[in-house]
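Sync notes, pocket subgroup
Present: LS, DG
LS reminded everyone that the earlier model was apo-only. Rerun requested with EPS included. Inputs:
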Amino acid sequence: MLRFLTAGESHGPTLTAIVEGLPAGLPLTEEEVNHQLRRRQAGYGRSERQQIEHDQVIFLGGVAKGKTTGGPLALQIQNRAAVQTREAAPVTIPRPGHADLAGALKYGFDDLRLVWERASARETAVRVAVGAIARRLLAEFGVRLGSYVIGIGAVSATIPACPEEELWGLAETSDVHCPDPVAAEAMRQHIEEVRQRGDSLGGVFVVSATGVPPGLGSYTHWDRRMDARLAGAVISIPAIKGVEIGPAFENARRMGTQVHDEIWIEHGRLMRPTNRAGGLEGGVTNGQPIIVRAAMKPIPTTARPLRSVDLTTREPATPPYQRADVCAVPAAAIVGEAMVAWVLADAFLEKTGGDSLSEIRAHWEAWQRNE
Ligand code: EPS
């Protein structure tokens, strides 16, 4: 139902997106998108680049008088750290773990800058803008999203058993986006130690969504299963190498009766005392919160270099280093929210249909009456 494309490079003039398939009549302001952009830019462990950038969106089409028109929505974010590297000398030594080598082999480039300019996670700024639009649509129907970091490098958080919304609130007050204040302090120290050593860190974050109606997605085909769609969207974020729905790897070590969420009736309503399935059964939302966890590898640009090869001379060499994030897990969690919002909004529109918000609302109300 929904599609988006992005264009632009890390040090090009702008990042651009075109969003297709939005209904008409959705209230939307640049400021609510900017709020999400600010959340992505916050986070301990980033490079000086985040002091240079002040990400702000401009709508170029598809919004009139504060509402979507139903036409393609075009948006842009300016890069302030623009263009200066374009004339720089070619880079010929690939960084292990980055897209440099694989990208150069694929496109036949001599200058690795051509790879990293587009492979850069700078592109996630514009994804967060697109995700902000998806979450605006979902909010009309009571679906909310948030995220929290549960591990950075060797430091793991202890997550209290409380509603997802509370965890989001706690994470929002932390510069490492972690709801456990003791672990958050240890994470900051860990990032500082690793920065001093010229190294980098990855970690694990959770994205969750509440108020998600049962019945999104389908078990009838592999590509309609919501777990596949969510995992694909989240793993498309640069540096994400693993995704699980609920505590999937922990569940794999237990017996069935310890894992599956029992079904109870309380005051005539179906309820589930636990949510180890992460809100999905048979690839379909079951009315429980959606829980997606993602593992991010450490940033591949390190001040202390790994061994590599100069692709021009074929001699051993060390990759150049200018600046880099030490850890971008808090930012990746916000990008994760955007991707989950996108997939949920797409599945929501499949279920309701409708060209305008009022038509969708009428379909939604009929759907709720039939529940
Ligand atoms: C990135 C490298 C860094 C990051 C960038 C992603 O940029 P630079 O090389 O200009 O310092 O800061 O991320 C962002 C700019 C951003 O806004 O997230 C990379 O190579 O992926």
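DG: The chain has one domain: 3-370.
LS: The pocket of EPS is lined by residues 10, 47, 49, 53, 81, 116, 120-122, 124-125, 323-325 (CB under 6 Å).
Action: DG to write up.
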